[in-house]
Specification:
- This protein is 37% helix and 23% strand.
- The chain is of the alpha/beta class and 295 residues long.
- It folds into two domains: 2-165, P-loop containing nucleotide triphosphate hydrolases (Rossmann fold), CATH 3.40.50.300; 184-288, K homology (KH) domain (GMP Synthetase, Chain A, domain 3).
- A six-stranded mixed β-sheet has the order 2-3-1-4-5-6, sandwiched between helices. A three-stranded mixed β-sheet has the order 7-8-9.
- Helix 3 (98-108) links the parallel strand 4 and strand 5.
- It binds guanosine-5'-triphosphate and magnesium ion (MG).
- Magnesium ion (MG) binds next to helix 1.
- Magnesium ion (MG) is lined by residues 16-17, 29, 37-38, 57, 60.
Length: 295
């Protein structure tokens, strides 16, 4: 059997986390229409009879603007070097630009086996796919291109087969029931952040960190969860809370339902909003909120 690690790399918002989730068959990473959704390296593990693929989901490539995005980009760069192969995710519906070609070549230059997942084919004209594949080929991008739709589940099995074929012979790295390296507590914080990404606009979600202060399973199979939504500015706090607390109430309730689904139990959720001025530029706070390059 084959087994190994595969870095999932691509521009921000390309569809990496969505693809990892469908490949693994469970939600291991949050997803949103906004770039910079993934902040950390997250493992998603697919175990089959013929082998195991450990996908390393990474923060999308995006311009660096603060200490947090700087850490995120270093996380991605490091992930790409510590693996057996690379799955480069390209948003097919966004078209092929010069900077896409440049990025693909940058990762090909690492010398690892690499495949390109050309995703979101469900929202673009089919005729464009062979034309784009030719464009990449002519530009000297020497990697197989797999058109897929993560949303529709199209070509996913074929992609997984091709990814597995790039990996070395070996025994599984994780036991077969494990799908992620992340704790339930981490996922709870992420689900809260996902709902904030979906509910609020502009800089607000990007300036939010979640700190879970209490994560307790009670005897009657319910969970008590207390968390802080930390934001960067007083006016962000006001927007997060909304008139008479209505916005926060809706967001928390939305998050709670997903937490219940994830934990398979009832959740009693308490949410506070706190302000830490410009935490995204303060290394100590970034670390306090769980973001670092450490393996
Ligand atoms: N139509 C369509 N939308 C998709 C597909 N895959 C992902 N999306 C959407 O694309 C957006 C971004 O998806 P993510 O999976 O969060 O993208 P990402 O590459 O992980 O983004 P970052 O973590 O920010 O780098 C979301 O709105 C997804 O629902 C697909 O196959 N088809
Ligand atoms: Mg992501």
């Amino acid at each position: 059997m084959r087994s190994g690690t595969v870095a999932v790399i691509g521009k921000a918002n390309a569809g990496k986390s969505t693809l990892v989730n469908v490949l693994v068959g469970e939600k291991v990473a949050i997803v949103s229409p906004k770039p910079q959704t993934t902040r950390d390296r997250i493992l998603g593990i697919l175990t089959r009879e013929d082998g195991q693929i450990v996908f390393v989901d990474t923060p999308g490539i995006y311009r660096q603007r603060n200490a947090l995005t700087d850490i995120m980009m270093r996380t991605t760069d490091r992930a790409a070097k510590d693996v057996d192969a690379i799955l480069f995710v390209h948003d097919g519906h966004a078209g092929v630009r010069d900077d896409d070609i440049e990025l693909m070549k940058k990762y090909l230059a690492l010398g690892l086996p690499m495949l390109i997942a050309y995703t979101k084919t469900d929202i673009m004209p089919k005729e464009k796919i062979p034309a784009d594949a030719k464009l990449l080929y002519d530009a000297g991008v020497d990697a197989d291109v797999f058109p897929v739709s993560a949303r529709r589940g199209r070509n996913i099995k074929k992609l997984a087969d091709a990814v597995l074929a790039m990996l070395p012979e070996g025994e599984p790295l994780f036991s077969e029931d494990v799908v992620s390296d992340r704790s339930e507590k981490f996922m709870i914080a992420e689900l809260m952040r996902e709902k904030i990404l979906l509910k609020y606009e502009k800089e607000i979600p990007h300036g939010v960190a979640i700190v879970v202060n209490t994560f307790e399973k009670q005897e009657n199979n319910t969970y008590r969860i207390d968390l802080d939504i930390v934001c960067e500015k007083k006016n962000h706090k006001a927007i997060l809370i909304g008139k008479q607390g209505q916005a926060l109430k809706e967001t928390a309730s939305f998050a709670r339902k997903d937490m219940e689904k994830f934990l398979g139990a009832r959740v009693f959720l308490t949410v506070y909003v706190k302000v830490k001025e410009d935490w995204r530029d303060r290394a100590g706070l970034i670390r306090d909120f769980g973001y670092s390059e450490d393996e």
